[in-house]
Design brief:
The protein contains three helices and seven strands; from the N terminus they run βααββββββα. By secondary structure, it is α+β, with helices and mostly antiparallel strands. It folds into two domains: about 55 residues, no CATH class; about 60 residues, no CATH class. Strands 1-2-3-4 form a four-stranded antiparallel sheet, with no helix packed on it. Strands 5-6-7 form a three-stranded antiparallel sheet, covered by helices on one side. A hairpin with a 5-residue loop joins strand 3 and strand 4. Helix 1 runs antiparallel to helix 2. The longest helix has 25 residues. This is PH domain-containing protein.
């Protein structure tokens, strides 16, 4: 049996993903304030930034330790998640995330990958 392959979250991918999320939240909050006729549309920007910034800071210790391991027969992750390689229907890339979809429809995310294409390729090689 080969040594397990480990998929660890990448801090720069975490920061990059949350930066994009903050930009979207800032724009979204400003648009909502503009639509409802609020004269202080600009306040949406710091509100969106603060919301995502606080969330990212709060969740960092949990998200940056969520490691997945792949053996010859399965991919296992945090919270007791375990997916047999022969039960994987699809492997998708969503930004810095790799989504595993099982034949029964369950979905699992391997989050904040530095190279999601390499993670996807490794899983697909193991499935073959």
């Amino acid at each position: 049996m080969a040594d397990p392959v480990t998929f660890k979250p990448d801090k720069s991918a975490y920061l990059r993903t949350n930066t994009w999320l903050a930009a979207a939240a800032m724009a979204g909050a400003m648009i909502v304030l503009w639509i409802i006729g609020n004269p202080y549309v600009w306040t949406g920007a710091p509100a969106g930034l603060a919301a995502v910034g606080i969330r990212a800071w709060y969740l960092a210790s949990e998200e940056l330790t969520a490691t997945w391991k792949m053996s010859d027969t399965s991919v296992s992750g945090p919270g007791g998640r375990d997916v047999s390689l022969n039960q994987i229907e699809a492997v998708n890339i969503m930004g810095s995330f790799v989504q595993i979809v099982t034949k029964s429809g369950d979905k699992h995310l391997i989050k904040y990958q530095a190279d999601p294409a390499a993670t996807k390729a490794a899983i697909e090689r193991a499935m073959a």
